[in-house]
Design brief:
about 350 residues; 5 helices; 23 strands; about 45% strand
Length: about 350
């Protein structure tokens, strides 16, 4: 082995490949920080702007500052065992200063460096908040009921579905899937920021509550040479909803499923489910969600004695084959105010 290959020509220390690691590390600029970084954020929702794209932020200002500072540090690719510590100081509401300490190993030698990085916080309204504040929307989901008013339960379910769809679509990256407003009129109007959002809400509302939907597009202008439509999604909920108890003129039925020209109903006298075609003279007694608890006073020879949950008077009902009541237990009942009796629903 030649002498030139065994010793560092700069310091004379042993070296296996020309210059030794200490001299090589000393002559290398391994830390090149940017003096300033800019963060464009939405003061309303906290979204961040990267180039021309806005994204939702899911971290605190401190965590975001650390990410920004780390992105401003340009380290040599041969640096290993990297450790970065920083201290953040707010100079004003729009400026912060980070004191940074960086340690690592370069060519087998421990190295240490320091830097300062200024962070400029720039507030700018994002694409979504700009549209919301400007009253922009692309569709309205109108929820109405056929031949009746929508119930508080139906309005609550529809509103909950709309909020869940908004959260799901935004989590999937669809920033412009937002709710501009929810208004109670004859039913419920859900004002949405995108056509896709309106479609998903309609699908889930109809799936949960039944009914049908018709679509009514309206041309409102052009964007980039393409027509822009505002769509009204008209959802018509069925006349009879799940859980309704009706008097048909002959028997009490509990509606279990709706759709098409027939409903699936449970016979509250004999038990069993059947498909029947609703007729206009059916009379609504109530919904099983409104049922009250009645105490079973006695059972005797095909008769169930109940204590009226309002008057506490004794009321006799015919025993039903689909329930097995016990004295002192509870049964769920609805009051038929027209016929003046209690209807056992479970």
């Amino acid at each position: 082995m030649r002498i030139q290959e065994s010793f560092c020509p700069r310091c004379g220390a042993p070296a296996t490949d020309g210059i030794c690691g200490r001299c090589r590390a000393a002559g290398t600029r391994w830390l090149l920080p940017d003096a300033r970084v800019t963060c464009i954020h939405c003061p309303t929702c906290g979204s961040l702007c990267h180039g021309a794209t806005w994204t939702d932020a899911s971290c605190s200002r401190e965590d975001l500052a650390e990410q920004l500072v780390r992105s401003a540090l340009h380290l040599h690719p041969d640096l290993t065992d990297i450790r970065v510590t920083l201290t953040l100081r707010d100079l004003s509401t729009t400026r912060s200063l980070a004191d940074v300490q960086v340690t690592g190993t370069l060519y087998g030698q421990p190295v240490e460096g320091a830097a300062q990085v200024e962070i400029a916080w720039k507030g700018e309204q994002c694409d979504r908040c700009s549209r919301i504040s400007g009253g922009y929307y692309e569709g309205v989901v109108q929820i109405r009921a056929d031949g009746r008013e929508t119930s508080p339960h139906e309005r609550e379910v529809a509103a909950r579905i709309a909020v869940q769809v908004e959260d799901t679509l935004q989590a999937a990256g669809e920033r412009l899937a937002f709710i501009s407003g929810i208004e109670e009129k004859e039913g419920l109007d859900i004002i949405v920021g995108s056509h896709r959002m309106g479609q998903v809400i309609v699908q889930q509302v109809v799936g949960a509550l039944g009914g049908q939907c018709t679509v009514h597009p309206k041309l409102v202008g052009e964007r980039d040479g393409r027509p822009v439509y505002r769509i009204t999604y008209s959802v018509r909920l069925p006349r009879w909803k799940k859980g309704d108890v009706v008097w048909t003129g002959k028997e009490y039925l509990e509606v279990r499923e709706t759709g098409g020209r027939e409903v699936k109903a449970f016979d509250l006298a004999g038990g069993g489910t059947k498909s029947v075609a609703p007729v206009p003279d059916w009379r609504l007694v109530g919904n099983v969600r409104e049922a009250m608890d009645a105490v079973v006073a006695y059972t005797d020879r095909g008769v169930i004695g109940l204590l009226d949950p309002v008057t506490w008077s004794s009321v006799e009902n015919r025993a039903l084959p689909w329930i097995s009541p016990r004295e002192g237990g509870m049964l769920r009942v609805l009051r038929d105010t027209v016929r003046g009796n209690l209807v056992i629903v479970g």
